[in-house]
Amino acid sequence: MAGIYVHIPFCRQKCTYCDFHFSTSRKSDKDMVDAMLIELKQRVSYLKHQGQIETVYFGGGTPSLLSVELLGQLVTKIQELYPLSDKIEFTIEANPDDLTKSKLEQLWELGFNRLSIGIQSFDEEVLNWMNRSHSSKQASNCVGLAQQVGFKNISADLIYGLPSPYNRNWQANLSQLFELSIQHFSAYCLTVEPNTSLWHSVNKGIIKPLAEEHASVQFNQLMDHAADHGFEHYEISNFSLPNLASKHNSNYWNGIPYLGIGPSAHSFNGSTRSWNISNNAQYIAGQISGSPNFDFEKLSHWDLYNEHVMIGLRRSLGINKCEIVDRFGLEYWQHAESALEIHLKQGLINLQNGVATLTQDGKHLADKIASDLFAT
C-alpha cells in the first residue's frame, strides 16, 4: 500500500507563525492545477510496484480554497491513473471559513471522507494575532455542518505554547475541542521559524517566546485531558480515538512509499527522497516544458536508521530490537541500547521485551533522546 500527497500552494493570507510554501495570489490556480495534472500523469510509474493506493492527502497551503471544479479535476485524474483501495482514506485540509454546508457536500461527493481542519485556537483575540482568516464561531460551526453532511472522520489542529499575552485559556480550548465530538486532533507547540512574522517580532523584542517550562505544563495538560476523553496519544503531536489514527501520516512514519505532487512536495520510494521546487512559477514552467524542477537524495543506511529512530520514538509504538536488527543489523541495536541506558535511569524511557518507548516525562525530550541514539 502506498500514498499520494497533493500540495495546494495557496492561502487566503499569511499566518504569523507559518513557514510552509504557499502564495496568497490566486492568479495561477488554474495553471497550477494543469501543471499538477501533468505531473500526476508523468509520475504514474513511481508507485507502480506498490500495489493499491491506500491514502490520498490534499494538504497545503489551504486546499479548501480551490474551487470544487479544480479539486474535481485532480481527484478525477488520480482515480483514472492510480489503483485506489476500496477502503481509501481520502483527506483534505481545510480552513473553517471555507466549509459552508454546500462546499462540504461537494467535497463529500468528490470522494473526500476525512477532514483536517485548521482551527488552531477558539480564542478570538489569539486568532486575530495569528492572522487566521476564520472566527471562533466558524471553527465550531463547521464541524457540526461536516457531521451533518456525513463526515465521520474529522481532525482538528490546535497550537499551544503561545507567547504572552496570548498564552491563556489553554484548558478552555481543550474543553471546547472535546465538545465537538471529533475523532482526531493534532496539537503543536508554537515554534519560531526563520523569516516568519513571528520570528521578526521576536528578533525585535516585540514578543518574548513562552518559557519551555510553561509550555511543558500545557503539554502535560494536553496529554491528561486527551486520555480522560478516550484519545490515544499515538504520536507526540497526534491523538485519536481507537482505530482512527491518520493512516496517511502513519504510513509516512512506517516508511511506506508515497508520491508528492505540486510545488515543494516530497516523494519517497524506500531508498531515495525527491522534492519539487518551492516556487510556483518555476514548478508550472517545468511541468509544462517537460523539464520538471526537482532535487533528490539517496539515503544512506544510517540515514534510514536515524529516521527510523527519530520517528519511532515519537510514536507510542516506539522502537524495537527485532525490527532494527532485521533492517539495519545487530550493531545498530547495540548502539541504541547503549545510548538508551542513561535515559532508562532517568525514567525517560520504558524498555520491555526489546521495545523502547517514551515515558510521559520522556515525551518532553523526544528529539533530544532520539539524537542521542543516532548513528554517524
Q: What does this protein structure show overall?
A:
This protein is α/β, with parallel strands linked by helices. It folds into two domains: 2-253, Alpha-Beta Barrel (TIM Barrel), CATH 3.20.20.70; 302-373, Arc Repressor Mutant, subunit A (Orthogonal Bundle). It is 41% helix and 21% strand. It contains 14 helices and 15 strands. The strands form three sheets. It has a nine-stranded mixed beta sheet, with helices on both faces. Helix 2 (68-81) links the parallel strand 2 (53-60) and strand 3. The model has no long low-confidence stretch (mean pLDDT 95).
Summarize the structure.
The chain is 41% helix and 21% strand. It is of the alpha/beta class.
What layout of secondary structure does this protein have?
Elements: E1 2-8, H1 29-42, E2 53-60, H2 68-81, E3 84-94, H3 101-110, E4 114-120, H4 124-130, H5 136-149, E5 154-160, H6 170-179, E6 184-189, H7 197-203, H8 212-228, E7 232-235, E8 238-240, H9 247-253, E9 258-261, E10 266-268, E11 272-276, H10 280-289, E12 294-298, H11 301-314, E13 319-320, H12 321-328, H13 330-345, E14 349-352, E15 355-358, H14 366-373
Parallel strand pairs: 1-2, 1-9, 2-3, 3-4, 4-5, 5-6
Antiparallel strand pairs: 6-8, 7-8, 10-11, 11-12, 13-15, 14-15
Helix pairs in contact: 1-2, 1-10, 2-3, 3-5, 6-8, 11-14, 12-13
